[in-house]
Amino acid sequence: MPSNNPNHMDNLNPPWKKGESGNPKGRPRKLFTDMARELKAQGYENVTAPRLIEAYEILLGLPEEKLKEIMTDKDQPVLFKILIKGMISSKGYELIEKMLDRVHGKPRQSIDISADMRESVKKLFPFGKEESIPEGDAE
Questions:
Q1: Residue 11 in contact with residue 5, Cβ under 8 Å?
Q2: CA torsion angle for 36, 38, 40, 41 (degrees, to 10)?
Q3: pTM above 0.70?
Q4: What DSSP assignment string belongs to the chain?
Q5: pLDDT tens across 23-44, in order?
Q6: CA angle centred on 41, ends 35 and 43, rounded to 5°
Q7: Are 47 and 79 a contacting pair, CB within 8 Å?
Q8: Nearest residue to 73 via CA among 82, 81, 65
Q9: Number of C-beta neighbours around residue 84 at 10 A
Q10: What are the residues whose beta carbons fall under 8 Å from the beta carbon of 116, sequence distance 6 or more?
Q11: Mean pLDDT across the chain
Q12: Torsion (CA) 73, 77, 83, 86 in degrees, nearest 10
C-alpha cells in the first residue's frame, strides 16, 4: 500500500520502467569540447609546453618596437599580447623573471654544511669506545 510520506521507499522508485534508461539522450556534450573540436578543424593547434617555451624565448629576444607591433596586430594570439603588455609595463622585470624560470628552471641553490658530530654521537651512544669514532670530516 503506497504511503503518503514522500520519503517512503515506494515513492522513491524511479519514474522509468526496468530496462528503460533514465537518461535516453545521454550526457550532454560539454561546450568546451565542441568548441575545441571546431577550432582544431579550422587549423588551430594546442599550445604545448615546448611550443610555449619557444615562444617565450623568441619574445624575450625581440626589440621593444617589434613587441609593440605584435601587441597591436589583431591576428596574433591573445597570449602574446598579454605577455608583451606585461613585459613592457613597469613590472616587466617580474614577468620576464617568471618567463625565464619557466623556460630554463629556477637556479639551483646548494648549501655546504660541515660539522664535527663526534660529541653528539658520544651523547647519543655513551656505551661505545672513543676509538670507534673516526677523526676528521663527518661527511
A1: yes
A2: 170
A3: no
A4: ---S-TTSGGGSS-SSPTTS-S-TT-SPPPHHHHHHHHHHHTT-----HHHHHHHHHHHHTS-HHHHHHHHH-TTS-HHHHHHHHHHTSTTHHHHHHHHHHHHH-PPP---------HHHHHHH-TTS-GGGS--S---
A5: 878 887 778 888 888 999 999 8
A6: 110
A7: yes
A8: 81
A9: 23
A10: 138
A11: 80
A12: 50
- Give me the residue label for grid cell 670530516: 137
Q: Which grid coordinates are listed for 3?
A: 504511503
Helix axes 92-104, 78-87, angle to 10 degrees: 120
